[in-house]
Amino acid sequence: MDHIFIRGLRIETLIGFHKRERIVPQTVSMDLEIGISNDAVFRSDLVADCIDYDIVTQRIRALMQETQFNLVETLAQRIADILFDEFGASYAKISIAKLGILKNTDRVGVQIERHRNDRVVGAR
User: Fold this and answer.
1) What digits encode the pLDDT tens for the residues 32-91?
2) CATH code: domain of residue 52
3) Shortest CA distance to 31 belongs to which of 53, 9, 3?
4) Is 93 within the bounds of a domain?
């Protein structure tokens, strides 16, 4: 499967259900693999035939500014939904980690994999 990837996208946001997490922004780091559903890009060399990763990252930043999430799991699913619904991705693998949130750990988080045809029922 052909995909584009984004590694180490870092965003400051309010995320979590603990009181301190609802007040103090923290850094999350993301890795994304986004399935390319249109193979025309390999012949055309046009970004219009592919998924523009700059626009993807702008959209994710906007989501995280407009919505405060309790769980990284919910954030990961919302990003997957956006990749399918707005960018036409065929596949999404998303890893999201909070950095330094637990003592003696580098990161804690979640990784999900979704295919366009195997969407989570009732998500959103």
Assistant:
1) 999 998 788 788 887 887 899 999 999 999 999 999 999 999 999 999 999 999 999 999
2) 3.30.1130.10
3) 9
4) yes
